[in-house]
Structure formats: structure tokens, C-alpha cells
Amino acid sequence: MKIFISADIEGTNGIADWDETFPDKPDYRPFAERMTAEVGAVCAGVNEAAPGCAILVKDAHETGRNIDHAKLPENALLNRGWSGSPLSMMDCLDSSFDAAIFTGYHSPAGTGGSPLAHTMRTRLAWVRINGAPASEFLINYYISMYFGVPLVMVSGDAALCAAVRQTDPNIKTVAAYQGTGMSVTSKHPRLTLQELRETAKAAVLDRKNVKIELPREFKTEIYFKEHSEAYRAAFFPGAHRISDNITGFDTADYMRFLTFLLFV
Prior knowledge:
By secondary structure, the chain is α/β, with parallel strands linked by helices. The protein folds into two domains: 191 residues, Rossmann fold (3-Layer(aba) Sandwich), CATH 3.40.50.10780; 46 residues, no CATH class. It is built from six helices and twelve strands. Strands 3-2-1-4-7-8-9 form a seven-stranded mixed β-sheet, sandwiched between helices. It is globular. 48% of the residues are buried.
């Protein structure tokens, strides 16, 4: 069995400020360690459900160099840095995997579930796919579907977890904190680690209950904070201007949308 884990940091237990997410800031290190611990707890749960399995972790935050590999189980491969692939936070995923898990994910740009809510790049005010607000969860959820790999578990802020369950109630979730304005309220980190381990085990065991049905078309809109960037993005082949700040891109091939997103 092969399990894929995409790990972000803004949905990690207790995180509340951008200074806790950037490697050059003094507040970063404790939360990078907490990110590593949460990924490690998920790996432990996966190993309990599927002894002898193969795990691949994609470090999917900022530089892609946040996780301490030495603190993960020995059967966990770690992908660091960025290859430049349109798969981005899902790089290395393919159809050979049996399940996918997202850790440390967060609410999308334009919503209030996390003080760090954003979608891919902070210069984007919001992204929509088929009319729905597109979080990094949704974008990467569709990537897992594209390869026929069931997404079985997501951890992150409570608002995102609620949106995940609405998308598919069979996806198991762990809320690492409750966001309110620019604050967060979270349980003790050790309790979150325990919940992550137990939930990951259950998610892998129940993986066949999760749906894998990709939409037939993708009508997408990106609202840029700067109108000049929307103007520039509209020159991408197949893209079109909707308004001064909004560029649209419609396709039936999800990989084409991911390529558009990569270059804009």
C-alpha cells in the first residue's frame, strides 16, 4: 500500500500569525517543529492501519523545506523543495497511490476561518471553481481525483474541516484550531497529535468509502488584488478577462487549469 501526504503549515495547531510561517522569522521554528510532529503523528496512524506500507510526504509550505525528516518514520519518503510541476502541493502524486491525506491546511482567501486564510498566493483575493470558493484543499482534492486516488483525511482550521465534510462527509477531519478574526483557539498540541494519529488510522482503514468523481468541466475565476496582474493573466492561452481584477479560464481538462494557475 502507498499513502501520499501533502503537508502545509497554516492549519497547524495554534498558529496565528504570518511570522510563524516564514523561515527568516524568529517565531517560525516552534511551528515548523509542530508541523513536523503533526505529519509524524499521521504517519504513525497510517503505519498502524497498514504495517509495511510506503508513505510519501510532500513538504508543501513556502520553501518546501520545513519538515525534519529525521523525526518521521523510516518508511516515509520526503519530497522537499519545488520541481516546478503544475501539481505544486501534490507533486509526486500519481495513480499508484492508494490514499491521500492533507495536513495543516487552511481556509481559502476571502473567508474568515483562519487569520492566515489564503489560496495559493497572497496576491489573490479569491479563486472560484464552478462558482464555489476554491481553497487549496479543493484544488488539491481535485488533483487526487484526477489520479483516481481517494482523499481520506484533512487536518486544519475548524472552518475548513466543516467545508471538507460538506464536500464529502466520508473524508475524516481533525480541527487543529478555531479561527476568530485574527485570533485562534486550540486544544493542547499533544491532544491534537493523538487525534491525528487515531484519525489517520481510521481514515486509511475506511478509504474505500470516499468518493472519487471529478467534475466534467472547470469554470474558474481568479480575483487579483492588483488589476495589472489580471490584465497580464488574461494573455494566457484560453484565458479571458471578466473585469478589471478578474480573469477567467474554462476547461474540461483539470491539468490545463493547474498549468494556468502555475503561470499566473
